[in-house]
Design goal:
14 strands; globular; Nucleotidyltransferase, domain 5
Length: about 300
């Protein structure tokens, strides 16, 4: 059997490591994200590699995401768009942890209209993984959406990332649902998250700042539950994001490929479908493993 190796996605909120052996996933370990580290990043990675090293040697590690951010494991910059997979491969940074060679993949950067700066770390791995899993995406123009804390909308042309736009929708939702007065106390009320989400989609065309207040007013006047209000905020924010992207999309009409967590992607798919878009879904974990596998094969 060939020597095992490790692939990993190290984000702001969590670390996910995959031990690969014999062409298949042989183990998985999780850990803290780079925003919650209590010890240096190399120590966190070493602790987990040491667990697997007791099972046998590890040839190498390939990481993406915030592992390459300043102050994390090792600084890996950004490959500038337009960027294809070869450009991405060529920009990796190398280090060593527990005696194991570690390659950290870069993020991508671009400037949109008017020179507005944009960056991503980790999502590019899912994009290039999707291209390897679905070769048809390498031809023509495509719009790929990656829902998350900072959702990315990526424009592909013949397998090259031409540009992308970020919507920090997940961060807005967390702040508004968890730290504002809009959802109110956890007291009894009517309505589910799902019904609130539907109502939020219905108000997508209204001015966002005014529409937000229904989350609170509906609790007071209509007896809505906190869960309903959370769903309402989610529908309103996701609906506003997807509507803005669908309106400016000139790629093949309204075809959008969603890559990410299945539950969150389903909400985005629901919003896009309500706006007349055609949607296809790809699992985020599957895409990131495919992207890391692809990178490892090219940079080894």
């Amino acid at each position: 059997m060939s020597e095992a190796f490790v692939l990993g996605d190290w984000g702001t909120s969590r670390l996910r490591l995959y031990r690969m052996s014999g062409g298949a996933m042989a183990g998985r370990l999780n850990g803290p994200g780079t925003s919650a580290l209590e010890t240096p990043a190399d120590s966190v990675l070493a602790e987990r590699l040491d667990l697997w090293l007791t099972e046998g040697p590890i040839a190498d590690v390939t990481l993406c995401g915030m592992a390459g951010a300043p102050g994390a494991l090792v600084e890996a910059g950004y490959a500038a768009c337009p960027a294809d997979a070869a450009t991405w491969f060529a920009s990796c940074t190398r280090t060593c942890v527990s005696g194991v060679p570690v390659a950290v993949m870069p993020g991508l950067s671009c400037r949109t209209g008017g020179g507005v700066p944009e960056v991503m770390r980790g999502e590019e791995t899912q994009v290039f993984g999707a291209l390897s899993l679905h070769p048809e995406l390498n031809e023509g123009e495509h719009l790929i959406a990656l829902p998350g804390t900072h959702s990315k909308w990526v424009r592909l042309v013949d397998g090259t990332v031409e540009s992308f736009t970020t919507h920090p929708t997940g961060e807005f939702f967390a702040l508004l649902a968890g730290q504002s007065t809009l959802t109110g106390p956890d007291t009894p009320g009517d309505g589910t998250f799902d019904s609130g989400f539907t109502r939020g989609l219905e108000r997508t065309e209204n001015p966002l700042t005014a529409a937000l207040f229904e989350a609170r007013a509906a609790r007071m006047l209509d007896g809505r539950s906190k869960d309903w209000s959370r769903g309402y905020l989610s529908g309103l924010l996701i609906g506003s994001e997807t509507a803005s992207q669908a309106a400016c999309d000139t790629v093949g009409g309204t075809q959008v490929t969603l890559i990410g967590d299945p539950a969150l992607s389903a909400l985005y798919g629901r919003a896009l479908s309500a706006q007349g878009c055609n949607v296809s879904l790809l699992d985020g974990d599957t895409a990131v493993v495919a992207g890391l596998n692809l990178a490892r094969g090219k940079i080894a």
